[in-house]
Design goal:
There is one protein chain. By secondary structure, this protein is α+β, with helices and mostly antiparallel strands. It has one domain: Chorismate synthase, AroC fold, CATH 3.60.150. The chain contains 13 helices and 16 strands. It has helices at 32-43, 51-54, 82-86, 95-98, 120-126, 133-139, 144-158, 185-190, 198-213, 243-252, 273-276, 357-380, 385-398, and strands at residues 5-9, 16-22, 26-29, 59-63, 65-66, 69-71, 75-80, 164-172, 175-176, 220-227, 257-262, 308-309, 312-313, 318-324, 335-337, 344-346. The protein has a 5-stranded antiparallel sheet. Strands 1-2-7-4 form a 4-stranded antiparallel sheet. A hairpin with a 2-residue loop joins strand 8 and strand 9 (175-176). Helix 1 crosses helix 7 and helix 1 (32-43) runs antiparallel to helix 12 (357-380). The longest helix has 24 residues, at 357-380. It binds flavin mononucleotide (FMN). Flavin mononucleotide (FMN) binds at residues 49, 118-119, 139-141, 144, 254-256, 325, 327-329, 352-353, 356, 359-360, 363.
């Protein structure tokens, strides 16, 4: 725990975002183009607001990588906000003035009409502010671009272990998709809402259009799947070291995520144990690769646990779902109050998404990737990736029925 560390800085309409990542071993191939793939995926999705047309996110690596390889030192990345240079606040005052880091004489309007459901009200109270912008700039999900950049570094490291992370949308605004166990991920990427069920996609798009028309917003459900995860990451021995704890916290930390479940999730509460638990296959039924070796030890008939038992990975795919609440900034605003007078007003509105559920899957992949990279380093150590991979291979040789342990 704490082997892969990540911090972000930056405001939504400030100069830009900074991501600082520490813990990746030396020797991992990383490029700005590789990170770019995920940053571009974060920006897509039907229902996003005008901001996504302005930004062309690119992470500039400013340290920790030399000639395309990590050096084991901290990696810092800068993602500039294009809007900062060219745009302005809802009253058209330039962001360079509104968000200047030095005092300004330029007149601009403070945000005083609190938005129910956003961080405005607890934030201005806690930080003693008279302008909700000092809260919303940081609680905006623009910050998730830094997470996705850090997640791309984690993804790059996890490739050495054959770990792949994908995500799909399972619901938007009450439209439920048919859950596909092994979707064609390239088809998901092509979908406007990142959904494997084409029929549901049409209905989701229609629901987003209807919400847009009504000046409203929508939430939904996303699922992140990680395959190739080795058995035994995390531990049962302490509450905060359980991988289930760490994954739930990481995914729950995504703005607007209000629920997390693994595998069959909450549905397990409704059915009997005999239908829930994932039966372990006898060794003669274990899937084998072309070389005759087991694909993975201790495979199961089902994966209702979502690849986690006792806070440890089982070796089955990790399946994490998240419920995302609807956006708080709505065009047809809720009644609210003015933070100075306490009088009834309409909540503040500025350019906003209708829904960001498709994007949330990409951010979920990043958060799952960061937790998995951390857990891999915790279990296998190593200052160079080759050392980490050697340790992983050696460990995997010891896992299986007792006769295999002598090794
Ligand atoms: C990708 C993404 C985009 C978001 N876009 C918006 C938005 O345009 N407007 C908005 O009010 N909230 C948006 N949110 C949600 C807010 O950031 C979030 O509701 C707010 O920070 C309050 O935190 P909480 O919902 O976790 O309590 C977005 C969240 C994510 C993950």
């Amino acid at each position: 725990m704490g082997q892969f560390r990540f911090l972000s800085a930056g405001e939504s309409h400030g100069r830009g975002l900074t991501a600082l990542v520490e813990g990746i071993p030396a020797g991992v191939p990383i490029s700005e183009d590789y990170i770019q793939t995920d940053l571009a995926r974060r920006q897509r999705g039907y229902g996003r607001g005008g901001r996504m047309e302005i930004e062309r996110d690119r992470a500039e690596i400013t340290s920790g990588v030399r000639h395309g390889l990590t050096m084991g030192s901290p990696i810092s990345m800068l993602i500039w906000n294009r809007d900062w240079e060219t745009g302005g606040d809802p009253d058209k005052v330039a962001w360079t003035d509104v968000m200047s880091t030095t005092p300004t004489t330029v007149e601009y309007n403070r945000i005083t009409r609190l938005r129910p459901g956003h961080a405005d009200t607890p934030g201005i109270s806690k930080y003693q502010q008279n302008d909700a912008r000092n809260i919303l700039e940081r609680s905006s999900a623009r910050e998730s671009a830094a997470r996705v950049a850090a997640g791309a570094l984690a993804r790059g490291m996890l490739e050495s272990f054959g770990i792949e992370i994908h995500s799909q949308v399972l619901g938007i605004g009450g439209v439920h998709a048919r859950r596909v166990e092994r979707p064609d991920w390239s088809q998901v990427e092509e979908s406007r809402v990142r959904c494997a069920d084409a029929e549901a996609e049409e209905q989701m798009v229609a629901a987003i259009d209807a919400a847009s028309e009504a000046g409203d917003s929508l939430g939904g459900v996303i699922e992140v799947v990680a395959t190739g995860v080795p058995v035994g990451l995390g531990t049962h021995i302490q509450w905060d070291r359980k991988l289930s704890t760490r994954l739930a916290a990481a995914v729950m930390s995504i703005n607007a995520v209000k629920g997390v479940e693994f595998g069959a999730g909450f549905a397990q509460a409704e059915i009997r144990g005999s239908e829930v638990h994932d039966v372990i296959l006898p060794v003669d039924e274990w899937p084998r690769g072309e070389d005759g070796e087991w694909v993975r030890p201790w495979p199961r008939r089902s994966n209702n646990s979502g690849g986690l038992e006792g806070g440890m990975t089982t070796g089955e795919p990790l399946v994490v779902r998240a419920m995302v609440k609807p956006i708080a900034t709505i065009k047809n605003p809720l009644p609210s109050v003015n933070l100075e007078t306490g009088e009834l007003v309409q909540a503040h509105y500025e350019r906003s998404d209708i829904t960001f559920v498709p994007t949330c899957g990409v951010i979920g992949e990043a958060m799952v990737g960061i937790v998995l990279a951390d857990a891999i380093l915790e279990k296998f150590g190593g200052d160079h990736i080759d050392e980490t991979v050697r340790n992983w291979r050696a460990f995997m040789k010891t896992v299986g029925p007792a006769h295999r342990v002598e090794g």
